[in-house]
Amino acid sequence: MTPECERIHPFRCPLRCVWSRSQQAALAFFVPPHSRTGPRVTSNVMSMTTSAAVPAGSEDAITGGGSVTERLVEANQRYADAFTDPGMDARPVLGVAVVSCMDARIDLHAALGLALGDCHTIRNAGGVVTDDVIRSLTISQRALGTRSVVLIHHTGCGLESLTEEFRHDLEMEVGQRPSWAVESFRDADQDVRQSMQRVRTSPFLLHTDDVRGFVFDVKTGLLREIDPA
Ligand SMILES: [Zn+2]
If you measure from the C-alpha of residue 138 to the centroid of ligand 1, how many angstroms do you get, rounded to a whole number? Predict the structure, then answer.
């Protein structure tokens, strides 16, 4: 058991060390040591625009010249080199589905002590319960046996800085209004509450008795549970 392996999944490591070692290699490839100087990748949701334009040179700053996808594919080759089939069933071991914001600062498996195969992770902008999240939860429960649902929003979410004007701006830019709602919110706690309500009232889900919602603090790493009432 490596220290990193122990940190990520202390409970059942002996079965999963191979996965952890290969993940560690990938992490070492992507995550520069904090002491290293050089370009930093920062998140600034306030500068969001509807344009897909990316400043020239920004990708080079991240990847050192090659495309980021090439780096991912190369990392995958190393991952596959160390990979052995764990022989897992597709059904999540813990019978839980976690719905979370896609925010890059949230490492769901590490933050929740989850190991490979433990859960379904369903992520989108905001971690909001959209029709497509209900679709995934329905399949998760009816086809793959999960019973519990955990909803996670977080502090400093980009959705708090957007409004439905985003859709209008998009329409002005591209000439077509998106069919989807932005699902922006002002209060993460309240959005967790209404998200729990959407899950609990869905007619498609088999299990709605164990639905809990949290806000993840990106500064402390702690979850704060939201009272559904
Ligand atoms: Zn977010």
Answer: 23
> Would you call 97 helix, strand, or coil by DSSP?
strand
> Ligand 1 centroid vs 85 CA: distance in angstroms?
33
Do 131 and 183 belong to one domain?
yes
SS3 letters across 104-123: CCCCHHHHHCCCCCCEEEEE
**pTM here?**
0.74
- How many whole angstroms from 80 Cα to the centroid of ligand 1? 31
User: How many angstroms separate the alpha carbon of residue 217 from the centre of ligand 1?
Assistant: 11
Domain extent, residue 56, equals 1-87
Mean pLDDT per segment of 10 residues, for the chain of length 229 residues? 41 36 37 37 38 47 76 97 92 98 97 97 97 98 98 96 90 94 94 97 98 98 94
Number of domains in the chain: 2
Nearest partner of 112 among 191, 13, 223, judged by Cα = 223
Which residues are close to ligand 1, an ion, with C-beta < 5 A? 101, 103, 157
64 & 173 share domain: no
